[in-house]
Amino acid sequence: MRVVRPGLLSTVQDRGRYGLQHLGVVPCGPMDPVALELANALVGNRNGEAAIEITVLGPEIEFECDALVAICGAQFDATLAGRALPLNRPVFVEKKSNLKTGRALVGSRAYLAVAGGIATAPVLGSRSTYLPARFGGLEGRLLRAGDVLPVFQSSADFAFKRYENLSSKKQLAGGIRSVSWSAPALTLPEREPIVIHAMQGRHHAHFDAAAQRAFFEATWKITPDSNRMGFRLAGPMLAHAEALEILSEPACLGTVQVPANGLPIALMADHQTTGGYPKIAEIAAADVARLAQLAPGGTLQFARCTLQQAGELRRVLRQRLDAALRSVDWMIGK
Amino acid sequence: MSPLGDAAVYAEFGDTLDLELNRSLQALAAAIRARAVPWIRDVVPALCGIALHFDPFHPELPDAVLEVCEELLQDCFKSASKFADSGHTVEVPVCYDVEFGLDLSEVSQTTSISISEIIKRHVKTEHWVLMVGFSPGQPYIGGLDPKLSVPRRATPRTRMPMGAVAIANAQTVVYPYATPGGWSIIGRTPLTVFDPARDPASLFAPGDRVRFVAITREEFAQLGGA
What we know:
The structure holds two protein chains of two kinds. Chain A is an alpha+beta fold.
């Protein structure tokens, strides 16, 4: 796979790098793991295989060999050899053709998965790109024009065999070889402001009453300096009731911390493993993928939830995802 | 013990820096890791507590996860040795020249201790790694001579040089990457703190003993420092 145009922020991501947080190494991985799991399933890969995470403005990629691909997540404008490319379904790509992605129309991140998977060298057990420390993926950096992404040797064979096994194959306009069915998009943002569930954080009580109220009442806007490390939120300033000196302590995916300037930061996939800012809230694990689909300028509100309700949200998401994965497996002849 | 959302818990055992406590946390972390609980992905000993990170979608994740973690911690607390360090000592060569020790004179003014005495005190005491966090391989090292205790700088630097050795809050930090930071820089090490291609990738692990060794500018260059 040769990168003709890199897009705004394209990286290699697999399921993530676990078990090293005590050495300061965060898992990284996909911002929207639900979309990555669906994309991999559609091309017959096992869960967690490496794919390209594309953001807001996607790349153009030339395929040097036949491939079976799927794009899941945000709704991107995409073409294959100049013809509209359908999302959320397996598509056969003939060698020497160009897959172009344009702007994300709804959502902000999608995954381009290839049958067989991307074969960059694993670093510390994962192919995920960790931009802040510059390792993993392709030399630990964003994709650039001219990059050649290695795919597994067998991926051209996989492409053909897996394409042959697909149910309800369909030749689309312009001769694009795909199917007549698609997987559901489970994480696309609904009408904004989207609702994100959050639990009170460890230091919630250290904020004054107005700040505690404002956090769950205000509409927050994602600022342009947001990235894979964290989403910075613009809205009312959240004042600390008392000057709070806390010792650095572990932080996690979805922690909402508030530095001295009073503007909250939601920690995302590449977040620091520890931090010393007070935590006003923790986002429900089931809602992190939906939050990841907001682009800068996108708006959200936080809805208070309990630990039990967060568990219920997880079960519902898992059930919907499992149902989708079962149908996909059936349709790809697995 | 408090939940960090629905994908992690944090058990805090104090809110001030206590070296003995930290040592028992290292032993506790080792005991928890040895259990290999399938839904626990990361065990992170911190300065005063331990975080357990879960796979929130693991089929075996219990509903009453807080209670299960509480039990696990208590159980492991019993089986863990009273305190243990990793058995490793990391020797860290540091060039304390003013070229690198950008804040030495400021620390000297704040503490009314001469620069040479600051260096002497920094290499003399026994240090150990309390926590590794923030960036890959970044150690928070306890055991700083109390006389060298300075607060964070009022205005953080936008860029701490790679390998900077800096002090604040009764600790020493060695910066693996050029990142912003508010600690006072007293020197620089030529060692690579974190290299994902090396085994082990991280020079420091929680529980390691640390000895700082003063080196000259020439030795710094010989050891590969730029």
